[in-house]
Amino acid sequence: MSLKLSEQERFRREALDELQQLGIDPYPAEEYSINTTAQEILEKYPEDEKAFQDVQVAGRLMGRRIMGSASFAELQDSSGRIQLYFNRDEICPGEDKTFYNTVFKRLLDIGDIIGVKGHVFVTKMGEVTIHVKEYKILCKSLRPLPVVKEKDGKVYDAFKDPEQRYRQRYLDLIVNPEIRDTFRQRARLIQSMRNFLLNKEYLEVETPVLQPIYGGAAARPFKTYHNTLDTTLYLRIANELYLKRLIVGGYDGVFEFAKDFRNEGMSRFHNPEFTQMELYVAWKDYRWMMDMVEEMVEKISLDMHGTTKVKVGENEIDFKRPWKRFTMYGAIEHFTGVDVSQMSEEEMRAAAREMGVETDETMGRGKIIDEIFGEKCEGLLIQPTFITDYPIEMSPLAKKHREMPGLVERFEAVCNGKEICNAFSELNDPVDQRARFEEQIELGRRGDPEAMVLDEDFLRAIEHGMPPTAGLGIGIDRLAMILTNSNSIQDVLFFPQMRPDKSSSAESETSDLGDAGIPDEWVPVFQKAGFTSAASLKDANPNKVFNQLCGLRKKLKLDMPAPKPEDVKQWIENVK
RNA sequence: GACUUGGUAGCUCAGCUGGUAGAGCACAUCCCUUUUAAGGAUGGGGUCCUGGGUUCGAGCCCCAGCCAAGUCACCA
User: Fold this and answer.
1) Which of A212, A191, A328, A216 lies closest to A280, judged by CA?
2) Calpha distance A170→A175 (Å, rounded)
3) Position A2 confidence tier, pLDDT thresholds 50, 70, 90
4) CB A73 within 8 A of CB A104
5) What span, in angstroms and rounded, lies between the C-alpha atoms of A285 and A263?
6) Which of A177, A200, A221, A410 could cross-link A424 (Cys pair, CB 3.0–4.6 Å)?
7) Rounded CA separation A24/A21 (Å)
8) What are the b/e assignments for A460-484, b being 16+ CB within 10 Å?
9) Which nucleotide is nearest to A156 (CA to C1')?
10) Which residue is nearest to the C1' sugar atom of B28, using CA?
11) Distance linking the first and last C-alpha atoms of chain A
12) Longest dimension (CA), chain A
């Protein structure tokens, strides 16, 4: 038994041993069939008191109130919590009361998983409760759970430290039921979107995550290596170029829910891996795509909430069509009162300075526009809004605007002050596409780490001809944040990326104490005493160490003979 | 990457001007044979994030580091 265990963990392991000595398997192999859930009982029982007279449910024990021969407990299953009533003489009809007195009262703990059989009734306090006739241990838990209590909506001792919640999401899910709900909603979002797209008969596809050339977005990639091919591969930053190859191949509509990876900063809006749904539809343009996005997101909101109105922080966002539309120039004029559409680069730089937007020499006209928009407009757009017609410099994969030179046919939807999607009329002119890639290469040469790389095979594909196509990328995590009223992307990802936790990995490190001749069973005692390595023992006083070891042996009730003083002296000599 | 705040028992948190490490829940033992966060009594439980420094003495002050959260920068 490891000495690193806390007292409560030791008690639980002792209980586990005792259960086994009583002939009870704490981890039975056979299935435990249930015929209802906590939620179903709580919803339906009051109407139909004759129902639920023979229920079987299973879940985790979340609280107990023991009073002698009768006890109440709380069982939590995937649907919710329900109270259990245990009565000694019903659990143990015969003379032997062990299964109640010892097993239930002493050997079970909060966090254990049990199955119960019985009938439903209402207590005199008015709570729907399962009167337990039989119970079975399905899994003994060896670690204490954070105990969260609640009354009248007020939560006591809430488990809310974000670091622990994210690192040990399972605990978060156990004790904070609303978290389980958030992820159900996220699943509903994805399901709704998928159904919407499948109904339109688009093909759901899968394309490579490992790519020899990364492309389709301006971002820095993760780099990896394939042994057999002896080649560098990148984790995709987007799947755009692959999906367009499929449009070249003749499909009318393809989409993918894609995990993408970007080797960039992290924040409450950015995780290194995130999910994006990309969709490409042949014969369409960006105007058509705007209508489609509105329709789709409105539908998702209705499917999730039954309404187009969603509360997000302080705001109520309404996804009802039609959404507001601004050109990028129009948005800047609307929010700043300055019409920049006809300005030269120099005039625009001056205008930016006047608005308090910082620019530097490397920024071209397009970049300055983007900067002004980002600083002065984006954050103010709370209701879903389309921003259209972007400067060409920022969009090497979008088609030139049909009317306005210098712009491309691109839109983003902004909602709650953040971009949620990005779309364009896809560039299918291979000569123009090659020229745009070459501009990117030039940017790369000048040191832009996010400049795109030229993908010769992609160019070859569109040289064969790609139909006019509208393309869309929509950030699933961002959308999930809005639709679940979550303040951080980490709240809509089960396992957000965290820096590895050093303290936990150090625990399993092996020690070189054994090399000094210290028997295996004493190594952990040395560690407990603060001697984690042979070197740390070098200057120790043998008498003091001996006393420490004996003290720990007594304190921890170790079942092994005390070491002899000369042994301890010898071990320390060995180290020197 | 920068700045701010934080890290103390299984969980939530106190901890004064630097002077023997505290509470509630949880846990154990006993009493009570009883329900609604919490019946009573008693008790056990600590690498005060890590490493240095100042000091007679550091959870507290100083320096360095680790981890997180928030804000900013970059980005979706």
Assistant:
1) A216
2) 9
3) very low
4) no
5) 31
6) A410
7) 7
8) ebbeeebeebbbbbbbbbbbbbbbb
9) B37
10) A11
11) 30
12) 96
Cis peptide before A322 (omega within 30 of 0): yes
Q: Which residue is nearest to nucleotide B10 (CA to C1')?
A: A144
Nucleotide nearest to A150 (CA to C1'): B37
At A291, list the tokens: 């209508």
Closest residue, CA to C1' of B31: A68
Interhelix angle A365-376/A345-355, rounded to 10 degrees, is 20
* Distance between CA atoms of residues A349 and A363, nearest Å: 9
For the CA atoms of A272, A277, A283, A289, the dihedral, rounded to the nearest 10 degrees, stands at -100
A505 CA – B65 C1', rounded, Å: 18
pLDDT at A124: 86
Residue nearest to nucleotide B49 (CA to C1'): A503
Nucleotide in closest CA–C1' contact with A501: B67
Three-class SS of residue A514? Answer: helix
Asked if the ipTM is above 0.90, the reply is: no
Enumerate the nucleotides of strand B whose atoms come under 7 Å of any protein CB.
1, 9-13, 24-29, 32-39, 44-45, 47, 49, 66-76
| Interval A392-414: pLDDT, tens | 888 899 999 999 998 999 999 99
User: Measured CA to C1', what is the nucleotide nearest A370?
Assistant: B75
pLDDT tens digits for range A6-46: 888 999 999 999 999 999 999 999 999 999 999 999 999 87
d(CA A108, CA A141): 9
DSSP designation for A27: S
Residue A559 scores a pLDDT above 80 = no
- Chain centroid to CA A40: how far? 28
Residues contacting residue A513 through CB under 8 Å, at least 6 positions apart: A523, A526, A527, A531, A533, A534, A537
Beta carbons within 8 Å of A124's beta carbon, 6+ residues apart: none
Q: Would you list the DSSP string of A433-502? A: HHHHHHHHHHHHHTT-TTPPPP-HHHHHHHHT----EEEEEEEHHHHHHHHTT-SSGGGSSSS------H
Tell which residue, A291, A317, A480, A303, has the closest CA to residue A386: A291
Q: Point out the residue nearest to B46 (C-alpha to C1').
A: A6
The confidence score (pLDDT) of residue A529 equals: 56
Classify A231 as helix, strand or coil. Answer: strand
Nucleotide nearest to A487 (CA to C1'): B70
Count of residues for chain A?
576
Q: Is pLDDT above 50 for A453?
A: yes
DSSP state string for A527-572: HHTT--SHHHHTT--HHHHHHHHHHHHHHTT-SSPPPPHHHHHHHH
Q: Which pLDDT band holds residue A533 (cuts at 50, 70, 90)?
A: low
For the CA of A128 and the C1' of B71, the distance in angstroms is 48
**Among A103, A81, A97, A128, which residue's Cα sits nearest to residue A24?**
A103
